[in-house]
Amino acid sequence: MNEQRFARRLRNMQGNVIREILKLTQQPDIISFAGGLPAPDSFPAEELAEIAREVLQNDRSILQYGTTEGYGPLREFVADWVKGVGVSAKAEDVMITSGSQQGIDLIAKAMLDPGEKVVVESPTYLAAIQILRTYETSFAVVHNDHAGVLVDELESVIAKEKPKLAYLVPTFQNPTGITLSVARRKIIGEMLGRHEVILIEDDPYGRLNFTGELLPAIKSFDESHQIAYFGSFSKIISPGLRVGFAIAPAPLLRKMVIGKQGTDIHTCNLSQVMVYEFCRRGLLEPHIAHVARGYSRKLKVMQECLALLPEGIKWTVPEGGLFIWGELPPHIDAGKLLEIAVREKVAFIPGESFFVLGGGKNTLRLNFSNATEENIRLGFSRLAKALAEYK
Ligand SMILES: Cc1ncc(COP(=O)(O)O)c(C=O)c1O
C-alpha cells in the first residue's frame, strides 16, 4: 500500500530496530546480547502455575472484566512497596498498566499534541522514542556523564524549549546502564518546581540492583508534584505477564485512565492477581535477590570478556539492570560490525538508534542477562573475531 494512505503519525515509520534485529537472532546457533530479555531460567514458573491454578479455582471474578485503574490489592501493594524508594503514594494514586511501556504511551496520549516538545536523554530507551514519535512529538536532548543526566543542561534545555514532558530512566538506564547520582536526583526534584513540565521517571530496573542498595527515586524529592513515576514487574517476575504501574498526580492519572479505557480497558486480571499473590506470599524479595545474584555473576563474566578485547574499546560498569554500553574506536561503525558479527553468530544492538538526534555510530548496547555464562564467553570470542575481520 502507498505510504500516503497511512496516518501521518505512522507514515515512513520503520519498525523498532531492536525487534528487527531480534528476528535475525532467532536462529538457534546465534548468541544474542541484543534483546533486553531476562534469563529464561529466572522465571518463577512453578510458583506462578500454582498461584494461577488456585486463583482460577477459587475466584471466577478473575475471568470477568475488571476496573481500568487495576486490581485493588495490587494497587495497595504497589503504594506500600514504592516506600522502599522513598515514594509516598496511596492506592488511589497508583494505576496498573500493561507494562511500564504502556505508561509511556498513556502519558503521551494524555499530554502531547503534534509538534510539542519532549526532552529525552541522549541516548535513551528506543521504544520511548518510537512511542513519542507516533504522537508527532519533536525532541530536545540532554546528555549524560558517568553520574547520569547533566542537571544544569537539563534545566537550561527545559527553560529554553519549554517541553510538556521530560523522560528519564535514572537507574541502570537503558541503553547505557548508567545510574543518576542521589545528589542530582535531589537537584532535579527541586528544579522542576521552577518550570511547567511533567517528568516521566521510568524505573523498570531499580530493584534489580547488585549492591543491595536501593536509591531514592527522583519522585521522592518531588515537592511540586510534577513527576509521573513508572515501575514494572517485567524484569523482576516476568515480562510476558505485562504488569507495570504508574503513579502520577491525580488529574494526570485520571486522563491516563481515560486513555487506557480506549486502549485495552484494563490490564489482564489473571496477570495482575498472579503478580499480587506472588508478592503477598513473600516470594518477591527472595526472587529478586536470586535473580540479581545470577545477573551480577554474568555481568562480571562479560566485563572480564570486554577486558580481553583489543584496546580502544570503552564500556560502562553498571551496578544493576541488564545492559552494558560500549564505545568502539571512532572509525568502527557498529552497524557494519553487526553484519560481520551475525555471520560469526553473535549479535548486539548498534547504539545509533538510541540517539534521537543522530550520532553514536561507534556505540553498542550489550545485554548480559539472557545468555548463559558459557555463552557469554563464547559470544565474546566470536565478537573478537568480528572485530579482527572489520576493515
Ligand atoms: C526503560 C524501559 N522502560 C520501559 C520498558 C518496558 O517494560 P515493560 O515490560 O514493563 O513494558 C523497558 C523494557 O525494556 C525499558 O527498558
Summarize, please:
The protein is of the alpha/beta class and 391 residues long. It has helices at 17-24, 45-58, 72-81, 100-111, 126-134, 151-161, 182-192, 250-263, 269-280, 284-308, 334-343, 373-389; strands at residues 31-32, 94-97, 117-122, 138-145, 148-149, 165-168, 198-202, 227-232, 244-247, 314-315, 323-327, 346-347, 349-350, 363-367.
Key words describing this protein structure:
binds pyridoxal-5'-phosphate, 4-stranded antiparallel β-sheet, 8-stranded mixed β-sheet, alpha/beta, 2 domains, 12 helices, 391 residues, Aspartate Aminotransferase, domain 1, Aspartate Aminotransferase, domain 2, 14 strands
Explain this structure.
There is one protein chain. The chain has 2 domains: 3-44 and 285-389, Alpha-Beta Complex (Aspartate Aminotransferase, domain 1); 64-280, 3-Layer(aba) Sandwich (Aspartate Aminotransferase, domain 2), CATH 3.40.640.10. The chain is built from 12 helices and 14 strands. It has helices spanning 17-24, 45-58, 72-81, 100-111, 126-134, 151-161, 182-192, 250-263, 269-280, 284-308, 334-343, 373-389, and strands at 31-32, 94-97, 117-122, 138-145, 148-149, 165-168, 198-202, 227-232, 244-247, 314-315, 323-327, 346-347, 349-350, 363-367. It has an 8-stranded mixed sheet with strand order 2-9-8-7-6-3-4-5, sandwiched between helices. The protein has a 4-stranded antiparallel sheet with strand order 10-11-14-13. Strands 1-12 form a two-stranded parallel sheet. Helix 2 packs across helix 9, helix 10 (284-308) packs parallel to helix 12 (373-389) and helix 11 (334-343) packs across helix 12. The model has no long low-confidence stretch (mean pLDDT 95). The protein binds pyridoxal-5'-phosphate. Pyridoxal-5'-phosphate binds next to helix 4.
